[in-house]
Amino acid sequence: MVSLINAMQSGDVPGTPALVFSNRADAPGLSKAAILGVSTRAIDHRPYATRETFEADITTALEEHRTDIICLAGFMRILTPGFVSRWAGQILNIHPSLLPKYPGLNTHARAIEAGDKEAGCTVHQATEVLDDGPILGQRRVPIMTDDTPQILATRVLKEEHKLYPEALARFIKGT
Question: Strand 40-42 vs strand 91-95: parallel, antiparallel, or unpaired?
Fold first, then answer.
């Protein structure tokens, strides 16, 4: 998220960050965004009876800030088909694997356990299917023999910080 904001504020990515949203008021990204001058909003999902009512309030916040593109980064809630449909073609996600391999959680451990030679990250358009949708870019990193999931995650995260702004810029430009 910080990489995206920095890239927009430097002009490397066209556009202006409209809102950083979290379902957790204590999410570190909220304070980082505020320091960078970006509006923030936290809406706790726990009081809501349904995911749909929670997502209706998210949509209201996004619309209030005239959001054109939603960039998911560390948002660990599965979005309903209704929300994804409302924002179809406007939601990007970054995932810490070389999709279509290893959708979901524990991607680094799964890649190591499978004996893969490389891992990486993927930026894709979000669809109603978890970690699916058109791939906008990938970055690869080798898996070393002494890698743990945590060590691999650190190496992949460095590539995520490069890939996401590049993919967002291409998406906005339509290339």
Answer: unpaired
